[in-house]
Amino acid sequence: MKPFVVIRKHENQDNVALQRLIREFVMSGAWEAFVSCLFREITLQLIVLGWALMFIFFGIPLYMCALAIPCVILLIWFTVYGSYYNKSTELALRPSKLCWVAEIYEPLLAMNAKAQAANIERCYTDRPGPEVQQELGKMRKNIIGTISCRNHLAMDNAGFITRLAVSPKYGLTPVTEYLIQRVLQYASDSQLYAIETVTSECDQDVREIYLKIGFNIRQVYHKQIVGAIKRRCKPF
């Protein structure tokens, strides 16, 4: 028995599982963001600033001022993880009128989640197909992904993808593609002329999936921690 996925509308009894899923997905990117921040110019600036403050204003011996290095690293760690935790909580509790979930059906004794996800070959809409009805009694189901869509705030007759989350245990592919394709199907049925979304620089894998499906990069934002915001636009 090979696992398969059902993409269906969100139901009220899914709320607890979705909140846990969204938190896990958002927090899974915190470590990569932390490592990325360590090699930014702002890190060196904070170390030099802390070193100077400790030596000039507090009279701490120069060699002891090296404590500024671990202090800055801890500060960045708490800042990054705190911001990711706040973001995960906000997304998990944010209501969404139009939401779909990805529910995997896998053998009862399946152990390796990523191996099961790699073997997914079938995807159904709303409910399992008739050809797999006899297998349902030997399988367990679990929500492993979600995606939401709302009206675009800046364009008429357009949609905006929000709250895309996939369980880190199962990996992004192919569940992420199935979820995005479901939104595109909804957009086609609703005669929306455009669908947009936003990804951060740490979401490289998700961005590659969007590009693979056919999305184009329309606008790139480069926002410095200290200084002005730089923008570079790229048309479709």
Automatic annotation (TrEMBL):
Pfam families associated with the record: Acetyltransf_1 (PF00583)
Keyword set, alphabetical order: Membrane, Transferase, Transmembrane, Transmembrane helix
Superkingdom of this protein's organism: Eukaryota
SUPFAM superfamilies cross-referenced by the UniProt entry: Acyl-CoA N-acyltransferases (Nat) (SSF55729)
Presence of keyword Transmembrane: yes
N-acetyltransferase domain location: 141-215
Transmembrane segments: 66-84
UniProt GO molecular function: N-acetyltransferase activity
Entry-linked PANTHER family: GNAT FAMILY N-ACETYLTRANSFERASE, LD18367P
The protein's name in its UniProt record: N-acetyltransferase domain-containing protein
